[in-house]
Structure formats: structure tokens, C-alpha cells
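Side project, low priority. Logging it here so it doesn't get lost.
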Amino acid sequence: MRKLLALLAVTAVAGAAVAGTAGARPAAEGTIVDIAAGNKSFSTLVSLVQTAGLVGALSDGKAKLTVFAPTNAAFKSLEKAVPGVTAALTDPKNKKLLVQVLQYHVVGSTVMAKDAVAAAKKGAKVPTLLGKNMNGQIGLSIKGGKVMIADSAGLNMATVTKTDLAASNGVVHVIDKVIVPQSIAAALKKAGLIS
């Protein structure tokens, strides 16, 4: 938890630099976890956050975060493309990998939709909680007027389908695919789940 919070602080500075000045955010009741738990479309995500032991970190009122939250349908799509991935990630011996996948969906600063659009128009590479290196970055772009997120594994291109779900400790943007960092793709290849 301390390592995660330290990483949050470092990434918050980097995220703010990429996103520019975050816009005014509506006041919200409840944390990011509360927002996700209150929407049945995120039940898989909530379950994985609990399995990874990240509920406390994503409920921390001192952190300001942006979560690109995959829906249940996004996880089903990943499972269809990579059969066995859910079982592999929820296996206790792979908890570290699950944590990495979840951290890859979180930016360490509050990035509202207008700031994400501005970054996407510039083709920005945004560091997630996995860090500033190529593995930890997501690529933002605009296609058909929508913000798209490319993962470092080259497996998925997610579309942001709903924006600015305000939480007391940040904001949630809904995405239609699970984004995967390069390091996780390498682990999936080693396990024989992808070629």
C-alpha cells in the first residue's frame, strides 16, 4: 500500500504535466470505489479490485486519481479473446500481475474529459500508475470524435464511452476494452494464453 501511494504521488506530478491544468470538477459524494460499486456494469472490476487488495488505495481521500474503468462487457471481450485470462489473473500466485493490470487503468491525477480530449488531440502518451516508461504509458488519440486509448501491449484499443463520473477522490471514465501493459502480455505469452 505504501509503495502504491508513493507511486501515486510520483505519477500525479507526471499526469498533471501531460494533462495540463485540470478543469473544475463537480462536487461528488463517494470515492472511486463507491462509484464503481454502485454500478452493476462494473461488478467484475470491483471484484478484481477486491481480489488485488486495492480497495483502500482507490478509496484514499488524499489521492486524486483518474480511473479508466472497463465494463463487465470489456472483461468478457478480453476473456473471449484470451480464454483463461480471468482465472490466471485471479490465481493468488498471480496477484502481482493483477495489481499491474489494475494500476494500468489509473492515472495519478484528476483528468477531466476536456483535458483528456486536449491530450488526445496531441497524441499524448500518458503515464499510468505503472510509471513513465513505455510499459506504463497509454496512448491517447481521437477517432470519430471519441477519445481512444491504445495499450502498450498492442492488444487493445479502448474507446471512452462515458466521461466525468465524479468521485470525491478523482474521476471515472468508462471504457469498452481492458487495456493491457506490455509486461502483462509477456506474462500471458509465457503462460501460453496468447501467442
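Brief comment: Residues 1-26 have pLDDT under 50 and may be disordered.
Revisit when time allows.
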